[in-house]
Structures are given as C-alpha cells and as structure tokens.
Design a protein that fits this description.
The protein is built from twelve helices and 14 strands. The protein is α/β, with parallel strands linked by helices. A six-stranded parallel β-sheet has the order 2-1-3-4-5-6, sandwiched between helices. Strands 9-8-7-10-11-12 form a six-stranded parallel β-sheet, with helices on both faces.
C-alpha cells in the first residue's frame, strides 16, 4: 500500500500537527507514505525533517491520496484507487455551507469526532470517524515545569489557545471570577495569543479585558477581591506546552466549537482532568468519570463571529455550542476541593485508544476497503 499524503505540514496549527502525526501513525502501520506540502498564504514554517525526506520520495504507483487540506483547496481526481479528504469541522453545517461542494469531490471524508460524522452523514456526505492520533508515550516523560512565581503553590486552572470568538474567553473569565475569590488558594493560567500582535501588546490587552470583566460583573469594586490570573501571551512550542501541563492542575475549556482539542486531550493524558464543553472531539475522549474529566452540557446556538479566522466560516447558517456556566462553576469548585482524591492515571489509559497503533489500524483498514 502506497499513500500520497498532501497537507499543510508547515503551518504550526491543529491541521499541521494532526497531519504530521497521521503520517507517523501510517508509517508505524507499515504503510509506504510519500508527502507533498501545501503552504498557505503566509508561506508557513519549515516542515519537520522526516516530512522533507518523505517529500523527496517518488510518487509512482501511489494507491491512495489523502488530502489533509482546507476543503476549498481539495482536488477531485480519479487517478487513485481512493481519494480521501481529512477535514477539521468545528460547527454543525448544512448543504448551504461553502465547503459542502468540496466535501463531495472525494470518495470519503475523514472527520475527527462523531458529531461531525453524524452531521455530514445527515447532509449526504460520505464520511468516516477516524480521529487524531498521538504519541502517548511522550506524556509519561515530562518533568520540567514552568516557574509561575508566587502562583507555584496554588491550585492552577489553565487554558491554552489563540484568541477568537469560538474560544469563549469571556465566559471562561466570568465563570472563574464569579466562583472564586481571594480567600481561595487558586490561580487561572491563561496562555492566550494572537500571531498578529506582540506578546507585550497581548498582555496589556488581556489584562485590561479581565479588569473590564471584573467591573462589569459588579460583584466587588475592589479588584483585590478577585482570585489571581497569570498570563502567558505567546504561542508555546511542543515542549513548553507539555511543561505547562506539568505545571498546572485542571484544564478548563468552555469552547463554542472544537473539532478536536489537542491541548485538552494532552491535559487528560497528563491527569489534568479537563472540564470542557460537551461537544465535538471532547465527547469522544472525556468519559463520564471524574478521574478523567467533566463534560459541561449546553445548547446549540447560532454562530456569530464578527472576526472569523477565515471569511466564509462561522456564519449564522451554522450552529455551535453554548456551555452551561453554572455547571462549569460547580465542576471547578469540585476539582479544587477534591484535588487529592483524583486518580490522575485514568486519563492516560483513555489516551492510549488514540495512539499510533490504534488509529493506524483504523486508517489502514479504511485504505484497504
């Protein structure tokens, strides 16, 4: 079996991360892989050396093509036995979505969560649930922590992502500040960033954003009443991200839409009991077990994003998720008060269901159908 894997390998995004690890998983399953990189408008970053080596292999006698690209860049072709699109779909879409036409140009679409599988099946797209894959052995080897100064001895909630409406930062801040005060030995570590702005500009902006939330909440005019926040306003590399997990205690993500959260998954594998929206990929790996994490229920709402990352995404003919903040407050309080009563090894056991061997087997089975 020989596979041509076409992807945005150098973009430092969920798409590139997922593609790189799928290639590793396929190789681990004895699939012959040749790669082609598709840079986006900014050119991207340097691709990993092993991907470069696979890009130099010949493309003769390829059996299957996997296109792990933005759907509007997919190419319909009959040159291969099977032409597959690997797509990250955050929201519930309809036949009127701009990607709908492209999703039907391939033989099948691989999606990262069962919500997307059900959604695409309902609108007549041939899809399969084949989620992201990870080198889960990495999570047992991290012992380096980030120095958080006077916050080191506190119970640390944390969140890591770029800014954007779908990340629901306002709801996350509001939930934390309304549940805890300065009498609780807690801290919230926000790793938030925007590649369009400097680290210092983001720190000033987000600090002001938090203070405005405190004032708007009208709980206490004295800002010292509220629990502390620690800001990291730059994107973290892979090793720094693992150190963040090792340094904190409980991951919280009240996302409105999440195809598959790499950071949330890693948090679970590190035993950091993610409290997260009951939507997308979270539903597939956060089991209803307090040793693993907590799914926060909510309702479907109409998408509304004045500043989407891509012009044609998150329009009001799509649906995303609105999590129950009261339920999240209760879960955060529970994990804080029961921090010594949680089996933090439970998460890594679930994580192994997504390792190279498990997902490589699923991919190989699909390729051979």
């Amino acid at each position: 079996m020989k596979v041509l894997y076409v992807a945005h390998f150098g973009e430092q995004s969920n798409w590139s991360y997922s593609a790189i690890h799928r290639v590793l998983s396929l190789q681990n399953s004895d699939v012959d892989v040749v790669c082609k990189n598709i840079p986006l408008q900014n050119g991207g970053s340097k691709v990993p050396e092993f991907i470069e080596n696979l890009m130099n292999k010949d493309t003769q006698n390829v059996d299957v093509c996997i296109q792990h690209v933005l759907p509007n860049m997919v190419i319909g072709t009959q040159k291969f036995k099977k032409n597959i699109l690997c797509a990250h779909i955050d929201t519930e879409i309809s036949e009127h979505h701009p990607w709908y036409h492209y999703l039907n140009m391939v033989d099948e679409v691989w999606v990262n969560n069962r919500d997307s599988l059900q959604n695409l099946t309902n609108i007549g797209v041939k899809a399969k649930y084949i989620p992201m894959t990870f080198n889960t052995e990495l999570y047992d080897k991290v012992d380096r922590k980030i120095d958080l100064g006077e916050m080191n001895d506190r119970f640390k909630f944390y969140f890591s992502s770029s800014v954007g409406e779908k990340n629901n930062l306002n709801g996350l801040i509001r939930t934390y500040l309304s549940e805890f005060d300065n009498s609780d030995n807690v801290c919230f570590v926000f790793n938030v960033y925007d590649p369009r702005h400097t680290e210092e500009d983001m720190k000033n902006y987000f600090s002001d954003y938090i203070n405005k939330n405190k004032e708007a909440m009208r709980v206490n005019k004295n800002h010292s009443h509220f629990p502390p926040v620690f800001l990291i306003t730059k994107p973290l590399n892979i090793l720094e991200q693992q150190s963040l997990h090792a340094s904190c205690d409980c991951y919280v993500d009240l996302t409105k839409s999440r195809d598959f959260s790499i950071t949330g998954f890693e948090a679970m594998c590190h035993g950091k009991t993610p409290i997260c929206s009951n939507t997308g990929g979270y539903k597939d790996f956060v089991k209803q077990d307090s040793n693993i994490g907590k799914l926060i229920n909510g309702v479907s709402t109409i998408c509304f994003d004045p500043n989407p990352p891509v012009e044609n995404l998150y329009k009001s003919n799509e649906f995303w998720f609105s999590p129950d903040e009261k339920e999240c407050k209760k879960a955060m309080r529970w994990y804080y008060e029961n921090k010594d009563n949680v089996n933090r090894r439970a998460g890594i056991d679930v994580g192994k269901e997504f390792d190279y061997k498990a997902i490589g087997k699923k991919m190989k089975e699909s390729l051979n159908e």
